[in-house]
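pinned: reference chain
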Amino acid sequence: MPKTKPLISVVDDDESMREAVRGLMKSLGYTAETFASAEEFLNSRQVGRTSCLIADVQMPGMTGLDLHRHLVASGKTIPTILITAYPDDKIRLSALEDGVVGYLSKPFDENDLLACIDSSLTI
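pinned: its structure tokens
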């Protein structure tokens, strides 16, 4: 029986960023799903299947960090990588203390993102 490819879920309110990351994930052999908001992701059937979550920090409604904290509080530990166009050292430190596996500033290097994903899939 073939091994199921890890599902990478991408949550970003910026459609071009969502699609760019999804395309990159698919080109690397991952299964990828995209969501325009944290709420859309939480209401999807993909939460339980997600091997790694890539979420934007700044989104209307629930932020990427809020989404990570919500998942942890509800007992769903999904390795999370936060991406942001507005890097903030205080938020970065808080996110890393809360257990996110990566905090990357846009535009980020593909290799940095891949290193975060690789480390998250071995957790």
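why pinned: The chain has one domain: 7-121. The mean pLDDT is 94.
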